[in-house]
Amino acid sequence: MEFVRSFDYRRNWFFPLFVVAGLVWLLAEPAKLDAIPAVGDLIGPFAGMAALLSLVAIGTVIAAYLLRPVLDRGPQAERALRWVGYGLIIAFFACMPLYVEAIPHASMLKMTVAIQFMIVIVGLNLLTGFGGQISLGQGAFFAIGGYTLAIGFREWDMPWGWSLLIAPLIAGVLGFLIGIPALRFKGPYLALATLSLAVTVTPLAKKFEEFTGGVQGVAMFGKLSVPFWQDNLDRFFYYMTALLALLVFVLAANLRRGRFGRALIAIRDNETAASAMGVNVALYKMTAFGIAGAFAGLAGALNGVVIQFVSPDQYSPLLSIRFLVGAVIGGVATINGAIIGGLFQQFVPDVTVSINKSAPDAIQAIILIVVMYTMRHGVAGFLQETWRYARSGLRLRKPGAGGTAVVETVVVVEREEVVIVRQDGGGAA
Amino acid sequence: MTEFIQLVLAGTANGCIYGLLALALVLIYRSTHIINFGQGEMAMFSTYICWSFLNAGMGYWVAVPLTLILAFAAGIAVQRVLIRPVQNAPELTIVIVTLGLYLFFNSLALWIYSGVPKPFPLPTGIRQASWQVGDIFIIPYHLFIFAVLITLMAVLYVLFQRTKLGLGLRAAAAQPASSRLVGINVNWMLALGWGIAAAAGALAGMLSAPVVQLEPNFMATILIFSFASATLGGFDSPPGAVVGGIAIGNIVALGGRYIEFIGTQLDIVLALVVIVAVLLIRPAGLFGRQVVQRV
């Protein structure tokens, strides 16, 4: 039970709370909760999510415990395990048609849209999480993607496949160019300036009626042909989206690991220092905007293909806010967090809308604020932290198990640091 | 010419409302360097509260002050409960929390009051018909809005420049650390700032509700115009916010009429052009202080 003792309760005080909330939810009969009007309705989703999160966290600890013999073999084994983890995630999405019916509220179409959200969010994670540039305007690039498809279809009868190539290009170039004025803005000002992008889209699309079809939008129902699985469009679009998403994730992970990612992080942490080290701040920031824009454009075009309908009201400013919310809840400075963010944005509104039409936004707002207080690095960051705690706690418990003396000292030093920090905190208070 | 003057009158009246909300944004930005994305929605929700009072049979002149007091208290509560824990967090965290406020109040209003627009009355004692001076029609309510703005500016001026409390508020905003050393309760000063801002925002909401109909999204556009006003005037200058507001009101009114492309649909684009232009040409705004950063 070293883990329980070594856990930093002061920073993660909410964790036991979540466990308790989850247990209450699991043990109490849902019917009893429902007896309290409104309150019961509201507690349900919150406690359910807390339960899910605490179950995953407990699973993480148990996994760290069970996998100890493998992990203690060294960093190589750890890396191999990570690949197994990625393999499991890919397998989960690859085998979706087998069990999608069994997941409540889920369907192939909804999963497809969730993956499209992930594509946008992973771009936003690069831009905001690693680059430190807040963007409330990703919905605008999403709209550019959608309208590339729609206008191409309407004006030139362009095959939809082309839009998947052209949309990211257009959105990427525009993103890159928008990066230029964005260089002058910082923090909340940048949020403000990018929000203005999001706000402009709907009126502009309504204004240029001759291209965009105005308020009515462009309907493409049944007019998009696919090479195979003609009788099962949902499945075709799902696999197409999932494959493209895999590509995007690999690209993003590589960008994050390499020179680009390091430069971005350096800029985020200290722009002056980064520039003194020879990082071309302007170019990297603009590129980050371009990449995030291209990802959003791709997702927008995919979304148009799948929904087969594009209209101005799909691209309200709220959409941009939702992207950022999803990114933040998943974990903005992570790549994997985008998976959680995308699923969250698709399914939490879907589940909570049954309570009340405006419940999804209210619940999201509360979750958002709670997440900001309790897990500043989002769910993915929280799970990473749990994993690290579990690992260091478990390693201490069994000295010499496969590990070397070096590992031991590192752990001891870590422990001492924790103790010292606590003493300081106590002294100052 | 008549039309021009008419447009300027209407634009100025709208601009006063933008200026009021911009004032709220500036009061918060000046002391805490936070741009409160939830300001407009907090104002919208206050306006709904006022509507509930009016609906319950309360008189206009009772309901409005009562709402202002409630909004003031709510502003303080929001700062103490929600904002203070993240006061020193990275900018992204604070932006996200205020966006959370935006989402929360917006959906709460939709939940409680539904999306059906509600009529909001003119203040009792203000006549509906307009006065005619030559060819020009003057709407009494526009003058009323202007008068309220001037009064509020005077009250705030006296509060900030002539009272000890105001001195504390200004000190806490300018030099939090030094103020703490001389015994000013900086945390409470910041909370008071939020309270005043929330009340000013609520006033903007209640003044604009009779003109545009009261529905959960009615402050969203006004918020964008207020952002433009505050940017134009300078995010750390309260008089700048008001001047910026009146300027934006006129830019929108005149631009919508005389620039064919803009029309009535794209007036928001004008606000965005102003935001981007100001931030590019003179980021501190007309009245703001240029900040030189030391590295």
In short:
By secondary structure, chain A is mainly α. Chain A is built from 21 helices and 2 strands.
Explain what you see.
The complex is a heterodimer of chains A (429) and B (295). Chain A is an all-alpha fold and 429 residues long. Chain A folds into two domains: 138 residues, no CATH class; 249 residues, ABC transporter involved in vitamin B12 uptake, BtuC (Orthogonal Bundle), CATH 1.10.3470. Chain A has 21 helices and two strands. Chain A is globular, with a radius of gyration of 23 Å. By secondary structure, chain B is mainly alpha-helical. Chain B has a domain of 201 residues. Chain B contains eleven helices and two strands. In chain B, helix 1 runs parallel beside helix 5 and helix 9 crosses helix 10.
Provide the descriptors you would attach to this structure in a database record.
heterodimer, A: 429 residues, mainly alpha, ABC transporter involved in vitamin B12 uptake, BtuC, 2 domains, two-stranded antiparallel ribbon, 21 helices, 77% helix, disordered C terminus, B: 295 residues, two-stranded antiparallel sheet, 11 helices, 2 strands, 71% helix, globular
List the helices and strands and how they pair.
The complex is a heterodimer of chains A (429) and B (295).
Chain A: H1 2-6, H2 14-27, H3 30-34, H4 39-66, H5 68-71, H6 75-94, H7 96-99, H8 108-130, H9 138-156, H10 160-182, H11 187-207, H12 209-212, E1 218-219, H13 233-257, H14 259-269, H15 271-276, H16 281-307, E2 309-310, H17 317-330, H18 337-352, H19 359-374, H20 378-397, H21 405-428
Antiparallel strand pairs in A: 1-2
Chain B: H1 2-32, H2 39-55, H3 60-83, H4 91-113, E1 131-133, E2 136-138, H5 140-162, H6 164-174, H7 176-181, H8 186-208, H9 218-233, H10 238-258, H11 267-281
